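job 3f2a | input accepted
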Amino acid sequence: MDASDGQVYRALVDDRAFDIAIQDDQLVVDGEAKDCTFEVLREGYVSMIVDGASVPVSVEPTGEDTLRVTIDGRRTEVQVKDERDLLVEEFGLGEEAVAGGEVRAPMPGLVLDLLVEVGDEVAVDEGLLVLEAMKMENELKAPSGGVVQAIHAASGDAVDKDALLIEIEAA
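job 3f2a | predicted structure (171 res):
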Protein backbone atom coordinates (compact mmCIF):
# COMPACT_ATOMS: atom_id res chain seq x y z
CA MET A 1 0.00 0.00 0.00
CA ASP A 2 1.44 3.42 -0.84
CA ALA A 3 0.52 7.07 -0.48
CA SER A 4 -1.20 7.12 -3.87
CA ASP A 5 -3.86 4.90 -2.28
CA GLY A 6 -5.09 7.83 -0.13
CA GLN A 7 -4.70 8.23 3.63
CA VAL A 8 -2.67 5.22 4.78
CA TYR A 9 -2.71 3.67 8.26
CA ARG A 10 -1.73 0.46 10.01
CA ALA A 11 -3.96 -0.65 12.87
CA LEU A 12 -2.46 -3.05 15.42
CA VAL A 13 -4.96 -5.08 17.41
CA ASP A 14 -3.41 -7.58 19.83
CA ASP A 15 -0.89 -9.40 17.62
CA ARG A 16 -2.64 -8.67 14.30
CA ALA A 17 -1.88 -5.82 11.88
CA PHE A 18 -4.31 -4.38 9.35
CA ASP A 19 -3.27 -2.06 6.51
CA ILE A 20 -5.99 0.50 5.97
CA ALA A 21 -6.45 3.17 3.30
CA ILE A 22 -9.28 5.64 2.93
CA GLN A 23 -9.77 6.72 -0.66
CA ASP A 24 -12.73 8.28 -2.38
CA ASP A 25 -15.77 6.53 -0.87
CA GLN A 26 -13.98 3.30 -0.09
CA LEU A 27 -12.36 1.78 2.95
CA VAL A 28 -9.57 -0.58 1.87
CA VAL A 29 -8.54 -3.12 4.51
CA ASP A 30 -5.64 -5.41 3.60
CA GLY A 31 -6.37 -4.78 -0.08
CA GLU A 32 -10.11 -5.51 0.13
CA ALA A 33 -12.23 -2.48 -0.81
CA LYS A 34 -15.60 -1.76 0.77
CA ASP A 35 -17.92 1.13 -0.03
CA CYS A 36 -18.24 3.32 3.04
CA THR A 37 -19.26 6.70 4.36
CA PHE A 38 -18.65 8.28 7.73
CA GLU A 39 -20.84 10.76 9.55
CA VAL A 40 -19.61 12.31 12.79
CA LEU A 41 -22.55 12.34 15.16
CA ARG A 42 -20.67 14.11 17.96
CA GLU A 43 -17.15 14.12 19.42
CA GLY A 44 -15.97 10.51 19.56
CA TYR A 45 -19.05 9.01 17.92
CA VAL A 46 -19.34 8.11 14.25
CA SER A 47 -21.98 6.46 12.12
CA MET A 48 -20.16 4.34 9.59
CA ILE A 49 -22.04 2.86 6.64
CA VAL A 50 -20.14 -0.07 5.10
CA ASP A 51 -21.56 -1.83 2.07
CA GLY A 52 -24.95 -0.29 2.88
CA ALA A 53 -25.08 -1.40 6.53
CA SER A 54 -24.94 1.13 9.40
CA VAL A 55 -22.35 0.40 12.06
CA PRO A 56 -22.17 2.54 15.23
CA VAL A 57 -18.58 3.38 16.23
CA SER A 58 -17.15 5.20 19.23
CA VAL A 59 -13.52 6.26 19.38
CA GLU A 60 -11.72 7.34 22.56
CA PRO A 61 -8.03 8.30 22.57
CA THR A 62 -6.17 6.42 25.32
CA GLY A 63 -2.60 7.42 24.50
CA GLU A 64 -0.43 9.18 21.96
CA ASP A 65 -1.16 6.66 19.21
CA THR A 66 -3.70 4.34 20.81
CA LEU A 67 -7.47 4.36 20.72
CA ARG A 68 -10.26 2.49 22.45
CA VAL A 69 -12.63 1.66 19.61
CA THR A 70 -16.09 0.24 20.17
CA ILE A 71 -17.73 -1.13 17.03
CA ASP A 72 -21.24 -2.52 17.26
CA GLY A 73 -20.79 -3.01 21.03
CA ARG A 74 -17.34 -4.71 20.87
CA ARG A 75 -14.53 -2.75 22.57
CA THR A 76 -10.95 -3.08 21.29
CA GLU A 77 -7.66 -1.31 22.02
CA VAL A 78 -6.06 -0.24 18.74
CA GLN A 79 -2.61 1.19 18.12
CA VAL A 80 -2.65 3.35 14.98
CA LYS A 81 0.35 4.20 12.84
CA ASP A 82 -0.06 6.86 10.17
CA GLU A 83 1.91 7.18 6.95
CA ARG A 84 4.76 9.09 8.61
CA ASP A 85 5.08 6.50 11.41
CA LEU A 86 5.21 3.73 8.81
CA LEU A 87 7.93 5.51 6.80
CA VAL A 88 10.05 6.14 9.89
CA GLU A 89 9.67 2.47 10.85
CA GLU A 90 10.50 1.30 7.32
CA PHE A 91 13.65 3.39 7.15
CA GLY A 92 14.83 2.42 10.61
CA LEU A 93 14.63 5.64 12.60
CA GLY A 94 14.22 4.79 16.25
CA GLU A 95 15.86 5.38 19.59
CA GLU A 96 18.79 3.17 18.63
CA ALA A 97 19.33 5.15 15.40
CA VAL A 98 19.95 8.40 17.26
CA ALA A 99 21.59 7.22 20.49
CA GLY A 100 24.79 8.84 21.64
CA GLY A 101 23.89 12.42 20.74
CA GLU A 102 24.14 11.87 16.99
CA VAL A 103 21.27 12.59 14.66
CA ARG A 104 21.50 10.72 11.38
CA ALA A 105 19.30 10.82 8.30
CA PRO A 106 16.69 8.04 8.62
CA MET A 107 16.32 7.99 4.83
CA PRO A 108 17.80 9.78 1.82
CA GLY A 109 16.39 13.26 1.46
CA LEU A 110 16.80 17.01 1.15
CA VAL A 111 17.50 19.24 4.14
CA LEU A 112 14.81 21.92 3.97
CA ASP A 113 15.51 23.87 7.15
CA LEU A 114 17.90 23.93 10.08
CA LEU A 115 16.09 24.80 13.28
CA VAL A 116 19.20 25.12 15.49
CA GLU A 117 22.73 26.52 15.38
CA VAL A 118 26.00 25.32 16.88
CA GLY A 119 26.02 26.27 20.57
CA ASP A 120 22.24 26.13 21.00
CA GLU A 121 20.97 24.28 24.04
CA VAL A 122 18.25 21.79 23.10
CA ALA A 123 15.78 19.67 25.05
CA VAL A 124 14.76 16.08 24.39
CA ASP A 125 12.41 15.90 21.38
CA GLU A 126 13.11 19.50 20.32
CA GLY A 127 13.05 19.95 16.55
CA LEU A 128 16.54 20.17 14.99
CA LEU A 129 16.00 20.12 11.24
CA VAL A 130 13.43 19.42 8.57
CA LEU A 131 14.23 16.67 6.07
CA GLU A 132 12.11 16.16 2.96
CA ALA A 133 11.93 12.54 1.87
CA MET A 134 9.43 10.84 -0.43
CA LYS A 135 7.47 14.12 -0.76
CA MET A 136 6.97 14.33 3.02
CA GLU A 137 8.52 16.79 5.45
CA ASN A 138 9.97 15.08 8.52
CA GLU A 139 11.13 17.05 11.54
CA LEU A 140 14.09 15.28 13.14
CA LYS A 141 14.20 15.77 16.90
CA ALA A 142 16.87 15.76 19.59
CA PRO A 143 17.44 12.28 21.07
CA SER A 144 18.55 13.86 24.34
CA GLY A 145 19.01 17.26 25.91
CA GLY A 146 22.33 19.01 25.48
CA VAL A 147 24.29 21.51 23.43
CA VAL A 148 24.57 21.37 19.63
CA GLN A 149 28.28 20.70 19.00
CA ALA A 150 28.33 20.33 15.22
CA ILE A 151 26.04 20.59 12.21
CA HIS A 152 27.12 18.56 9.19
CA ALA A 153 24.46 19.71 6.70
CA ALA A 154 23.00 22.95 5.39
CA SER A 155 19.62 23.90 3.98
CA GLY A 156 19.39 22.60 0.44
CA ASP A 157 21.82 19.71 0.96
CA ALA A 158 20.88 16.29 -0.37
CA VAL A 159 21.82 13.63 2.19
CA ASP A 160 22.08 9.86 2.11
CA LYS A 161 20.52 7.45 4.58
CA ASP A 162 22.57 7.31 7.82
CA ALA A 163 24.43 10.54 7.01
CA LEU A 164 25.56 12.29 10.22
CA LEU A 165 23.57 15.53 10.41
CA ILE A 166 23.93 16.92 13.93
CA GLU A 167 26.00 16.12 17.02
CA ILE A 168 24.74 16.96 20.50
CA GLU A 169 26.83 16.86 23.65
CA ALA A 170 24.88 15.93 26.78
CA ALA A 171 24.41 18.84 29.17
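job 3f2a | The longest strand covers residues 32-42.
job 3f2a | closed
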